[in-house]
Structure formats: structure tokens, C-alpha cells
Specification:
Layout: H1 3-19, H2 23-27, E1 33-41, E2 53-54, E3 58-63, E4 68-73, E5 79-83, E6 87-93, E7 107-111, E8 116-124
Parallel strand pairs: 1-8
Antiparallel strand pairs: 1-2, 1-5, 3-4, 3-6, 6-7
């Protein structure tokens, strides 16, 4: 093999080795984020004891500085799981801060390293 081809071969090998993640990098950190469920209630007039029911909705996620991070939709059971880096976040469900029912507030969440923070969000149906 001539010197030019050998140099090219070694350079290409070093480049591939540099671009290919090591076993430690490939494994990556354990995921963190939030996991939870959304409900709406009351579901019948007061005094009847009807349980809140799961509620499907969309939720926007913002950093604690107000930067948009992501948006997701809960499943038909109101359940969700989203992977986020450790930090402080604000979850803003659709309709948060609106005047007509259903009412819901934004939720502040702290995500710890290698943990999924449980969150329950409940819309107020306005039914009394």
C-alpha cells in the first residue's frame, strides 16, 4: 500500500472512531422526565359522588425561563410520559387560564436526574 493510501486509510479510521460513540456514550444517561395523568371533574352535580374521569388533552412544556420545550397529547386515558432533562418546567394544559369551563392551571414541575416526576392534572368541569 503506498503512503498516500495508508495515510488516507488511517485518517478515515480515526474519523470513524471519533464519530462513532463509545459503549459508554451509546448507553447514555438513564432517562428522566415526567409521567402522569389528566382528569376532569366533577362529572355529575354535587352530592352524587361521581369520580373524576380521565381526560385527553394537549400540554405544552416550557422551561422555567419561559422557553418552549415541547408539546404532547395525552392518550385516551389521560396518561402521558415525556422525557426531559433534569430541571424546572411549567406544564401548560390546553385551556389553562381560560374563563369558560373547563378550568385548569399551569403546573410547575421539577425533574430530577434519572427520575420520572409523577404529575396529576385536574380540570375543573364547572359542573356544580
Amino acid at each position: 500500500m503506498n503512503k498516500t493510501k495508508l495515510t488516507l486509510f488511517i485518517g478515515l479510521g480515526l474519523l470513524v472512531g471519533w464519530l462513532t460513540p463509545s459503549a459508554i456514550q451509546a448507553a447514555g444517561p438513564t432517562h428522566s422526565g415526567i409521567i402522569g395523568q389528566v382528569f376532569i371533574g366533577p362529572t355529575c352535580p354535587s352530592g352524587f359522588g361521581c369520580p373524576d374521569r380521565p381526560f385527553q388533552t394537549s400540554i405544552s412544556v416550557y422551561s422555567d425561563t419561559g422557553r418552549f420545550i415541547t408539546r404532547f397529547t395525552t392518550d385516551s386515558k389521560g396518561e402521558f410520559e415525556v422525557t426531559l432533562k433534569p430541571g424546572r418546567y411549567v406544564l401548560v394544559p390546553d385551556g389553562a387560564g381560560s374563563i369558560p369551563p373547563p378550568y385548569v392551571a399551569a403546573v410547575e414541575v421539577v425533574v430530577q436526574k434519572k427520575e420520572f416526576t409523577p404529575v396529576i392534572i385536574t380540570y375543573d368541569s364547572g359542573l356544580r
